[in-house]
Amino acid sequence: MRLYDQHLHSKHSFDSKAEPLEVCRNAIENGLAGITFTEHYDTHPTEWPGCVFDYDRIADDHAACRADFGDRLAIGTGVEICYQPDNMPAILDMLESHEFDLVILSVHWFGGKAVHFQESWDRGRIDHTTRHYLETVLDAASLCAELARKNSSPFHVLGHLDFAKRYSYIFWKENHAANCRDVIEEILRTCLEAELIPEINTSPLRRGLTETMPDAWAVRRYRELGGRCMSMGSDAHRPQEVGQNLHIAAGMITSAGLDGLAVFEKGQYHIQPLGD
Ligand SMILES: [Zn+2]
Ligand SMILES: [Zn+2]
Predict the structure, then answer these.
(1) Which domains does the chain have, with CATH numbers?
(2) pTM for the whole structure
(3) How far is the CA of 38 from the centre of ligand 1 (A)?
(4) Are 5 and 233 in contact, with CB atoms under 8 Å apart?
(5) Is 80 helix (H, G, I), strand (E, B) or coil?
């Protein structure tokens, strides 16, 4: 089975120290067919000063990775854009002027608050905060649908759809995503309208949760709504995490009856079947 990890980070993200060459070495050891580096691009005023995104340095490093490992591993240059509705013109300009194999749109902030800070949550109403987060994801997908109507598709993949549950679980061992089924389904419908491919992100499995983002029921629902393929990623921040649990994501894609994995190159995808 040819697996591609299309969501991972290296030292070019503020929260990772991983050397890109080391990431490639681990990817080969873990039997992957390809990886795509998707470094953080964070424009919130409190994060922008710490955002280390330097396209030229990243491109140089990827050229070195391809020189050493390109014969054994497909190596893509991607980016994980943090959805910041107030900064969209600048974000779209950046995407327009750089080449990427894959652009992930992820929501980390909702209503001016970061989901990964405990103080952003209303402790008494974890379900309410989860819903507020997911409504922001719906806003992000709706923006992509609006762009698609103007024949513009700068974003290719929707990152970690129900990311809020990772934090409600870390903070309080609670997960209310399944109570927000209606919003999650609306997000999936909007993804189809926007031609935005949702990913299966396996990182919660490293943090004690027993489900991926999104969960298997959402993958099946996506198929019922007309989806054909999804992306997948470990969201690795350390070399040893590359490719972790992607076989679980592959099993979810297959058992939901999807055609396979969407593998991105230069902003286009082909569907990689996931038979044995
Ligand atoms: Zn993210
Ligand atoms: Zn990430």
Answers:
(1) 4-272 (3.20.20.140)
(2) 0.98
(3) 9
(4) yes
(5) strand
